[in-house]
Input
Amino acid sequence: MATPYYTLLQKAKMLGHPGAINQLGDVINDGGFKKAFLVYDQGVKMCGIIDKITALLKANGTEYVEFGEVLADPPSGVIDKGGELCRQSGCDCVIAIGGGSSIDTAKGITLLRVNGGKILDYKDAATPKKYSPGLICIPTTAGTGSELSQGIIVSDLENKQKVPMMAFEAMAEFIILDPELTVGMPAGLTLMTGLDVFSHAWESYVTPIAHPMSEIQSEKVMQEVIKYLPRVMKDGNDIEARTRMLMAASLGGFLLRMAATNCGHSIAHVIGAHFHIPHGAACAYGVPPVMRLIAKYNPAKIKYIGELFGVEFDGKETPEQIGEKTANAYIAFRDGLGLKPLSSYGVTKEQLVSVAKDVANEPFAPLTLGGMTEELAAQLLAECYY
Output
């Protein structure tokens, strides 16, 4: 008997308000944990956040082991090393502190803590895995929403691939969303992560598996980003804007569980792996051409997105015109916030188009309305370039 695809499934316990981090000891005690494995990158360490975390753990009498080796686009080897150290240390929970890379690394470590082996051993979703409890996520960026998603993006450096993996068995049990931890994010990171939130929302809105509950959530997350990302870019200390973006980011991650993404993320994963383009930027470059494509199949939804950006329609537009108007409005939004051209990364259009086969074969590509081919992927990649 097939397992039903449930409309809503989420088991995490979440705290979400300014100052929530101060309840970390209570969360540890609620989970019955005794020894924590801290997963973070050196940027978070330099911001002083790790010192705050360790002080809270000491005050609670909780033992901990630190693993500060997280890298952007988490390499499989880093996850493997962390998993081995976590097992050897006898830790019974993993605390992820940071952005998507830290959280994805911690998910992988949590999986390996219980199951053993190496993370790429589990890239096939059908590979048996034991339930792996004990993950606590503390996001310090408002972007990936990885704390509420079921996936891990692992970099296979040997094959120059970003490998999307399912981690249903190692999703977060506890989440602490404290917008005060995001106040120190520099403008560039704020922009990259904010654009990623929008991509999660709009892509999930137009996948074939979108449903009424996910659509309502997608609409609201898009609205929040359009309103609050410009505010937080203008004033990084705007705690209301930081709060709204952090909540929107987390809900955007939940949308990945509810309705997934489409070839927009396929483009981002592939060009990110090949050309070392930050994920949020890579997502943003793919939005306009994919919007134009989707408008041919669902002009009503693309029109709705355009209206969120303030586009006026007279009702006489063709699907192609709706796609063009909405795509142009998004371009004005992202570029107005300071996104630099894709060409600034030293990539040529020919190089970009050369990875079309990888885009067409990426796992999320089949969730594109109308389907995906290598020829179509090449066209979309060419349209990304400027």
About this structure: Strands lie at 13-16, 35-39, 63-67, 93-98, 135-139, 151-156, 161-166, 174-177. The chain is about 50% helix and 10% strand. The mean pLDDT is 95. The radius of gyration is 20 Å.
